[in-house]
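User: Study the chain.
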Amino acid sequence: MLRRAMILAGALAVAALAGSTFAQEQPAVSQIIHAGRLLADPSTGRVLSEHSILVGADGRIVGVEPGYVTRAGAEVIDQRSRFVLPGLIDSHVHLRSVERSPSQIVDAVTLTASDYALRAAQNARTTLHAGFTTVADLGGPNDAIFGLRRAIAEGRAAGPRLIAAGAGVSIDGGHGDANGFAPDVLDALRSPNACSGADACRRATRRQVQAGADIIKIAATGGVLSNTATGLNQQFSNDELAAVVDAAHAMGRRVTAHAHGADGINAALRAGVDSIEHGTYLDRESVRLLRQGDRYLVPTLLAGWWVLQLAEQGGVLTAAQEAKARQAGADMARMGRFARENNVRIAFGTDSGVSPHGMNAREFQLLVEAGFSPLQTIQMATVNAANHLQLGQVAGRIAPGFSADIIAVDGDPLADVAALENAMRFVMARGAVHRND
């Protein structure tokens, strides 16, 4: 009798332990989204009907189940009339910047770092409400962007998950450095990471990693909005490019290169950069190099389209900026078609801050006009961008373990991608609802 009781007690203890383990493996469900149509994994393009997304208290997805399920104590969020998909990712923004205006040059010497930080917080909220739950901020003073990154991560500010480059690395006097001011003003405004020579550029890169950069942004060529007539071709020397990439990779950081001219694009790729921003004049050699390794093109067609509008409007850009905008604006649209014809791997990015924040989804329509299907553009802004930003196991899909970054629109973005721009109705980021029209 005693032996039988001991066996029974042991069995009950094992069962209790198993039940405890099972409970630990099944996080409590705090919210359930009822999705009328669901694109959970954009890489497949498969749309599910009448499914439920279970979200845990930790802001992660617990499960995706068929039907409209409920759980005791869980809040039900009704999106049965809408198309639900993963939160969008913009791989190239400038949150502290506002679109170009006649006051921009004056702003540089009248606004404080605090002014810019508050602008960045406002722009982050606007971007989040547009459906972008993750962004990469590629260039701006460290204090404002790194402070905003921390505030968003700690839930003290509303905004997308922020991958931050902070101050970019550029050549002395090149794109990314101060230009177009009197010499004494230039000394006050110059970039902390402007450099000349391989050793200086290696040092600037290491210091930027030390400051907290998630990714290193370099200006491999001239830029449209630099207030200087120095063209759009290569600016870093090959040795300088190699030094930046070597230093960044040695410290575990990817390098993305602002690059317009083919000579600068190809030099940066040969030096080992991980992605190209803009890529206006990429050629067949660029395509060959982009196909090597885990590399992406971030075409930012919206930036080219927007600066061309500003050039036509007049009164906003300086003479040097306007000449380059007219040159590059139409060429960026042609580049989009060339990239599609050559099957270049693309991550979605807009360069917002050049264009208005919140307009990010206009990029989808420009990509469709370049010949991509709506599904391809959504893949660029979800699974592709997540992989590009090293978030492939965090964002870009609606699946167990992934962050609950979820949006919903009226209509069907696979039929008309404009729904992502004009019909955004629901935004959840990391399990918190930020918009529910």
